[in-house]
Design brief:
The complex is a heterodimer of chains A (about 425) and B (about 500). Chain A contains twelve helices and 13 strands. With about 425 residues, chain A is an alpha/beta fold. The longest helix of chain A is centred in the middle third of the chain and has 24 residues, at about 215-240. Chain A is globular and about 70 Å long. Chain B is an all-alpha fold. Among the domains of chain B are: about 280-335; about 345-485, no CATH class. In chain B, strands 1-2 form a two-stranded antiparallel sheet. A two-stranded antiparallel ribbon of chain B has the order 3-4. The chains are: A alpha/beta (about 425), B mainly alpha (about 500).
Chain lengths: ~425, ~500
């Protein structure tokens, strides 16, 4: 079911085509396109992460005065040194594993990432981070565009999304990125058994090859069905994966376990998408108490990432892996009356991996309430960005994926100080 | 509009203004004009609302209860089953469809409510009927169902006072010393005017407007009447004037005046009136209605949006008149609009049950597959609702649809073989029968040929009972799993 570029243009399909190789070529393709090649894991912290509670400027007097109940006491933070503006920083006390990775030099924090006139809408904000286009956030996802730029034919397992629906960041013109929330349920079922069931599966595979090129919306569904059927057997391999580290029994833990399994089984996937939610803490954010909302978020993040890091390290896969996190916005500096924080602006991105130059990139905000404070905006209510998030994407694209960031992002966002890879 | 509505038109109407058609639904609407069918759909009060009384009765889809019995007022899995049951067996399809539209529009997630108040209470504030329990709590969904074609301004006011919403968007903690922006932002961004038609300072002013719109807990635990409900708490209200970037009053005035705390609830009523009357609200709703009812593919028809927004404004926000205009619009009735929407998982599931059969099937067995397809009722992913469109068709979600079709076909194996038997003389006649039962847009000849090839695979055609049992179920599985069948 290979569709050439020429047929694509001739067919006039604007929205979607599929450029899969025939299944018998898939394993060769997988080897050529990614097995034991570089992997990228995109981690979305959904809801707007309060990065001031994750990477904490604990000595800033305004941090304590503006967050009377949410501030983490200086004595409790896990100190990670000072940034280039000499602001001492500490991690949330539950992030012991991340501190360990940081100390190993394999975790980078890029402070104050965002963009001009940052949207405080979850919806629009997520679209902007997904498309890397603040001016038109309805287009294809930036990872989707990267997949489209790979030489055709593209292995349908080149991307793996661990959520059940397709996130905007992976929306692509030519690739139906598999959504595999659980490898166990990823199989072909039939009301029959034996040769009847096999005949059904054969029919389903052949049907999905008759791509209706003149109907792009229907083609999209055909592409999904074809990609699902073409990848079932390889995904089943991941079920047999035995990790070398114990993953927590959380959604994020299980997702990262599957990602590690896919890498270890060399099924050819290059880009993984993982998400963990619950960051929209308008009330009872409870940063400090064990079992508090934000404390639990940090526990989920820490335990899953540490297991993933250790597992990959044990398997010798860490050097092939980079994980990049983002969230749609940071949160308001001053806590609200509900013991929570409202929607804010700039936040912190994390980059983790075996070839990452860890450390603190960019500078922390000064939380002084002076409306002229240049590190803040919105009448000193929110953190203003210092590093355009597209500069981080650009570094990942150029330095890790081997892509052309100027083309991929539609502009030159390269920033020489971002040397995390 | 004179002349009888064709079966194709009735099926189109029921796929969009309902969840597909049971055989008896087609029968009951055929023989009427298109206008009569539309009138029957929008004047659903003329049909008794008795569907819940059929739950557990023979002849209907099953529900699966737990040790304590079937308790949709306190168990969210039961509440989900009750709603699916209504979609399958109810005779007020548009009421149920609009309820889904509003559930997505005012998207509220059970888990946060349950996290704050407990699981039984979470289900209660989402799904209880006011007759279920001494506290007379009417859950959010029942409120939306009661107002499915009501006045939009009333729906907004009800939502602003809804217990689940006051927890979901934190209005219960909105006080004068600490205004809470969450509800104020979403009522503008997602419920009324939309992005681009309000400013950040409107959000802050809106938060102050709704200070004091909190919860109280009357009743007693002893008789089970204790419950949370809306209260205007004057002591928590911020009394200074609030100025907006858009008109609040008919004379164009943009400022809600300073008021005494005891009169301060009027602030919120004024803002709700202003948002209902804002010209951007009608256009925002019309656009969403176009995507949900008329056409998902291609650009939004701006002529439609203008016309529907006009009905909204002229009728003073009467959703019955709005929906009447939607269903009678040339855009809706256009043949080219048929099958131009991606079905939501709940639409796919209900339609396939109506098409394939339900006797001996429990809607409980649809809940996990629906989650894999990306849709759990009472649990939209966030306040903006489900993403819909192509996001429904990730590979995993498409596989979940195909696998649901497989499990339903297996469950209905004997019924399908019985239904197929009169048409079992040849593969062609059997295929024609089942393609008529499970309507799709016209199939490519290659695709139809593959279905026939499947019927001829594994041995010569005999039409025996044994062959029909495997082939009817296998064929139905393949048809319901076709990409074409995912379109409505």
């Amino acid at each position: 079911m290979r569709v050439t570029r020429r047929q694509f243009v001739k067919g006039g399909v604007a929205a979607f085509t599929v450029t899969f190789a025939a299944p018998e070529f898939l394993s060769d393709l997988a080897r050529a396109q990614g097995a034991r090649g570089r992997n990228l894991v995109v981690l979305y912290l959904s809801g707007g992460n309060d990065s001031l509670s994750m990477l904490i400027p604990y000595n800033d007097p305004f941090y304590t005065s503006r967050r009377p109940t949410l501030a983490v006491p200086a004595a409790n933070v896990l100190q990670v040194g000072t940034d280039s503006s000499r602001v001492p920083l500490g991690l949330h006390p539950r992030l012991t594993g991340l501190r360990q990775i940081f100390d190993a030099g394999r975790l980078a924090f890029v402070q104050r990432t965002g963009y001009p006139n940052q949207s405080r809408s979850h919806f629009q904000g997520t679209d902007i981070w997904s498309t890397a286009d603040p001016n038109n956030s309805s287009g294809l996802g930036w990872i989707g565009r990267y997949l489209d730029s790979l030489p055709s034919p593209v292995d349908p397992l080149v991307g793996w999304n661990t959520t059940s629906s397709l996130p905007h960041v992976l929306q692509s013109a030519h690739s139906a990125v598999p959504a595999i929330a659980s490898t166990g349920g990823y199989g072909f079922q039939s009301p029959n058994t034996g040769s009847e069931a096999a005949a059904e599966r054969g029919a389903a595979v052949r049907i999905s090859s008759h791509l209706p090129l003149n109907q792009p919306e229907l083609s999209f569904v055909y592409g999904s069905a074809a990609a699902a059927l073409a990848t079932l057997d390889r995904v089943a391999l991941v079920n047999a994966y035995t990790p070398s580290a114990a993953y927590p029994n959380t959604g994020l833990g299980l997702a990262l376990r599957a990602v590690a399994g896919a890498m270890a089984k060399s099924i050819g996937t290059r880009v993984f998408y993982v998400t963990t939610g619950g960051f929209d803490n308008h009330s009872q954010q409870n940063v400090n108490a064990a079992n508090g909302a934000y404390y639990t978020l940090m526990a989920t993040l820490n335990d899953a990432l540490l297991a993933f890091y250790n597992d990959l390290n044990n398997q010798g896969l860490l050097g092939d892996t980079m994980l990049v996190s983002f969230s749609e916005f940071g949160r308001r500096i001053t806590e609200n009356g509900s013991g929570g924080t409202d929607h804010g602006a700039a936040s912190v991105m994390m980059v983790m991996g075996g070839r990452v130059n860890g450390g603190l990139y960019g500078t922390a905000p000064n939380l002084n309430t002076d409306p002229k404070n240049p590190t803040l905006e919105n009448n000193a209510g929110d953190v203003t960005f210092e590093t355009d998030f597209r500069s981080v994407y650009a570094r990942v694209a150029d330095g890790w994926l081997g892509a052309d960031s100027v083309r991929l992002l539609g502009g030159d966002f390269r920033k020489s100080s971002l040397t995390f890879i | 509009m004179a002349g009888l509505a064709s079966n194709r038109q009735i099926e189109h109407l029921l796929r969009r203004a309902g969840f597909g058609a049971r055989p008896d639904e087609i029968d009951s609407y055929s023989g009427q004009s298109y206008l009569d069918v539309v009138n029957a759909l929008i004047h659903y009060e003329d049909t008794p609302d008795v569907v819940d009384s059929f739950i557990g009765q023979p002849g209907y889809v099953n529900v699966t209860s737990t040790a304590g019995g079937f308790s949709p007022q306190s168990n969210i899995a039961h509440a989900r089953q009750r709603w699916l049951f209504r979609m399958i067996h109810g005779d007020r399809p548009l009421q149920e469809k609009m309820t889904l539209f509003w559930h997505n529009h005012f998207a509220t997630g059970y888990t946060k409510i349950a996290g704050a108040l407990g699981t039984a209470e979470g289900a209660r504030y989402m799904a209880a009927k006011s007759t279920e329990g001494a506290g007379k709590v009417r859950g959010q969904l029942e409120m939306l169902r009661d107002n499915a074609l009501g006045n939009f301004r009333d729906i907004l006011l009800n939502i602003a006072r809804d217990t689940a919403m006051l927890v979901w968007l934190d209005g219960r903690t909105n006080t004068k010393n600490n205004p809470q922006e969450n509800f104020a932002r979403e009522i503008m961004e997602l419920f009324t005017v939309g992005v681009g038609h309000y400013t950040e300072s409107d959000v802050y002013a809106g938060a102050r407007v709704f200070t004091g719109w909190n919860l109280q807990r009357p009743g007693t635990a002893a008789d089970g009447s204790q419950h949370y409900e809306f209260v205007y708490n004057a002591g928590n209200h911020e009394t200074t004037a609030k100025t907006f970037s858009f008109p609040i009053y008919a004379d164009g005035n943009r400022t809600i005046p300073a008021r005494s705390a005891s009169n301060g609830m009027q602030d919120g009523l004024d803002l709700i009136d202003a948002l209902a009357a804002n010209p951007n609200t009608g256009r925002y709703l019309a656009t969403k209605l176009y995507r949900f009812f008329v056409r998902e593919f291609g650009d939004v028809d701006q002529e439609f949006v203008g016309a529907i927004a006009n009905v909204y404004d002229q009728s003073r926000y009467d959703m019955r008149q709005v929906m009447r205009a939607v269903l009678l619009s040339t855009q809706f009735r256009d043949e080219a609009s048929m099958f131009t929407r991606y079905s939501w998982p709940v639409e796919f599931v209900i339609r396939s049950i109506k098409d394939i059969g339900w006797r001996g099937f429990s809607v409980n067995d649809a809940l996990t597959p629906m989650a894999s397809m990306g849709q759990t009722l009472y649990e939209p992913p966030d306040v903006s609702g489900w993403d819909a469109g192509q996001t429904w068709f990730s590979t995993g979600a498409m596989l979940a649809r195909m696998n649901f079709a497989a499990s339903l076909a297996m469950n209905q194996k004997f019924n399908l073989a019985t239904a197929g038997k009169p048409h079992g003389a040849s593969p062609e006649s059997l295929l024609a029968y089942f393609l008529d039962q499970l309507a799709t847009p016209p199939l490519d000849t290659n695709v139809a040929a593959e279905l026939e090839t499947y019927l001829r695979a594994t041995g010569p055609w005999t039409g025996s009972d044994a062959q029909l049992q495997s082939k009817c179920a296998g064929l139905v599985h393949l048809i319901a799993g076709l990409p074409e069948y995912q379109l409505v």
